[in-house]
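(Deposited chain)
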Amino acid sequence: MLATAILDPDAADATAIAHRLDFTDHAAEVPTHVHRKAQLILASHGAVTCIAADDVWIVPPGCGIWIPGGVPHSARATANARVDYLFVEPGASRLPDHCCALELTAMIRAMIDRLAHEPSDYSPDGHAARLARVMLDELAEMPRRRLNLPVSGDSRIRAIADALTAAPSDRSTLASWAIRVAMSERSLARLMLRETGLTFGRWRQQLHLVVALRELASGASVQQVAAELGYDSVNAFITMFRKALGTTPAQYFVQRRA
């Protein structure tokens, strides 16, 4: 069953409503859709990959992706994912009007879990409404994390992104990719920087990080992920991961579970 068939968030008048899905019981892929309410997607187990605002976002455990209302988005969950959705009325939160990744405290996750047990038509003067207000205030204070891969709407960059997502071990140079998309190397370098804000090397490293977080959260070993991404050694992969996130893969997921 599609997750979007479970709940129509725009049918509820409450300031914020929450819903939990276990993707062992639902289709792993949620097709592109849009709703009036803003949405926070967070994973308590496994991971979710979202496409929104021309970016690919990864939602590992302990983090959430904020998607403002009116932004078309799709999602794909790992088979072991347990996901919470928080839907928020426009203007009810101080969170930004653009997509962003948030590091979430245990308190925030517990408050969302508590709200998920409330009916969507809870009283605006009751306990659930007070909980929602405090939760939204706390959410606005959460630190941002770079958990996205900028792709842009340019067909050539999207073609490279699709190819590298399907075969992330591909180590073709920028010059090789320029030939594939019928551009000069210099023109592709300028296009990549203009459209994504990153050089090709930094952009491919960010793609590797997004793929790595998804695969590690799904249960793959560090050795398996390093091989899938084409690293010469496990240590080289761990070095990349530590530079990006400040810790090793093992420590990262221990911290997320804690």
